[in-house]
Amino acid sequence: MARLLTGKEVSASIAERVRADVSFLMEKGITPTLATVRVGNDPGDAAYERGAAKRCEALGVCCRKIVLDENVSQEELISVLESLNKDQSVHGVLLFRPLPKRFDQALIENTLVPEKDIDCMTDLSMSGVYTGRDIGYPPCTAEACMEILDHYGIDCTGKKAVVIGRSLVIGKPAAMMLLKKNATVTVCHTRTKDMASVTRDADILIAAAGRAGIVDGSYVREGQTVIDVGINVDAEGKICGDVDEESVSPVDLALTPVPGGVGTVTTAVLVKHVVEAAKKTVLL
Hints:
The protein folds into 2 domains: 91 residues, Rossmann fold (3-Layer(aba) Sandwich); 124 residues, NAD(P)-binding Rossmann-like Domain (Rossmann fold), CATH 3.40.50. Helix content is 42%, strand content 15%. The chain contains 10 helices and 11 strands. α2 packs across α10, α6 runs parallel beside α7 and α6 crosses α10.
C-alpha cells in the first residue's frame, strides 16, 4: 500500500523557518514584500494570486497586487517591471505567464533583475540552476520537490532518479537539482522508448509530464519514492496528477498526492524566496 507524502507538514516546516527570518527582518525595519503582476483576468492566475497573497499574509510578508488590463501594451508592461526593479521596498516579483501571444515573452521576462526573480523567469536565474551559482532563484515547483525529499529524509546520494518531462519550468531544473544532490539522473520525454522500463528502475521518480494518469502501476515498483507534479483535470472535472493513484496505490512505495502534495509546498517556497531576497538586502 502506498504511503502518502503530504505537502501540509512540509509547508508547515518551511513556514516555521520563514517566520523566524521575517522576525529578523522586522527587527531591521524591513517588511519583505512580493509584487505580483497579472495581465488580464485568467481564472487560474487569479486563483494562484489569491493563494500566494493568503500565504504571504499568514507569514507576515506583504503582497502587492498589480493587475493590468488585457490590452496593455508591451512597453507599458516593461515599464512596470523596470519600476519594480528600482523599487527598494519590493524584494520579489512574480509575473504570471504565459503572456498574450502579441508580447515578446523572452524580452519581457529578462527585463526583471534576477535578484527579484523569485520563480526563475529570467535566463540569468536559469543559468544559476545549471551552474550552481547564486543567481536568482530556482523554479518554485522544482524546489518544492526537493523540499519534500529533504523533509521526509529521502537521501538522493547515489540513487537512480528519473524525471518525466523536459520543460524549463520543472523537468530540466528538477534534473539539475537532483544532480546537485548527487543522484544519477535520467530524463524521459515523449520520444523515450519503453518508458515504463526506465521508470521502474528508478529509486526516485518525478512525474512532470502534464498528462493525467500517464504513470500507472506498470511504471512503478516497490520501494520507490514518486513525486507527482502534475495538475490536470480528469473527465469528471476533478483535479488529478500525472500519476494514476488508483493503479499505483496497491504498490508499497511513497507517493505525493494530488491535490495536497507538491502544489501545497510550491506557494510556501515562493514566500521563502521573497524572504531570502529581502535578507540579502540586509546582508549585502
